[in-house]
């Protein structure tokens, strides 16, 4: 079983959407992980549309899960603090993984 983590972030904030978007990629570049997917889109927060992103990271096995879990928490916390966000959400789920 693989563990899939998804970090959900919004880009609205005091410094603006572009700043927070760039900040997310800066935080990810310095986090020590060598693989993730970022999907940008528009979500809703308190009934207001907000640009944002979902960052998906996969731990292919139990051995890698602890390492990735620590980095996911660090990325979410750092982005939340630096982007001055009220919340950053993280989900975790188990899935079958087929590597081709």
Order of helices and strands: EHEEHE
Strand neighbour order, sheet with most strands: 2-3-1-4
Mean pLDDT: 95
Strand percent estimate:
35-45%
Poorly predicted runs are none
* Number of separate strands: 4
Q: What's the end-to-end separation, in Å?
A: 15 Å
Shape: globular
Instruction: Give the helix proportion (percent range).
Output: 25-40%
**C-alpha-based Rg, rounded:** 14 Å
What structural class do helix, strand and pairing data support?
alpha+beta
Number of helices in the DSSP assignment: 2
User: How would you sum up the major sheet?
Assistant: 4 strands, antiparallel
Structure description:
This protein has 100 residues and is an alpha+beta fold. The longest helix is centred in the last third of the chain and has 21 residues, at 62-82. A four-stranded antiparallel β-sheet has the order 2-3-1-4, covered by helices on one side. The chain is built from two helices and four strands. The two termini are 15 Å apart. The model has no long low-confidence stretch (mean pLDDT 95). β2 and β3 (48-59) form a beta hairpin.
Which helices and strands occur, and which strands form pairs?
Elements: E1 2-10, H1 17-29, E2 37-45, E3 48-59, H2 62-82, E4 89-95
Antiparallel strand pairs: 1-3, 1-4, 2-3
């Amino acid at each position: 079983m693989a563990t899939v983590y998804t970090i959900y972030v919004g880009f609205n904030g005091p410094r603006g959407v572009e700043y927070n978007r760039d900040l997310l990629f800066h935080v990810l570049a310095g986090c020590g992980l060598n693989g993730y997917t970022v999907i940008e889109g528009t979500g809703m927060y308190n009934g207001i549309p907000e640009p944002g992103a979902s960052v998906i990271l996969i731990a292919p096995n139990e051995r890698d899960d602890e390492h990735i879990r620590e980095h996911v928490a660090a990325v979410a916390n750092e982005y939340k603090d630096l982007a001055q966000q009220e919340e950053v959400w993280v989900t975790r789920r188990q899935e079958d993984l087929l590597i081709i």
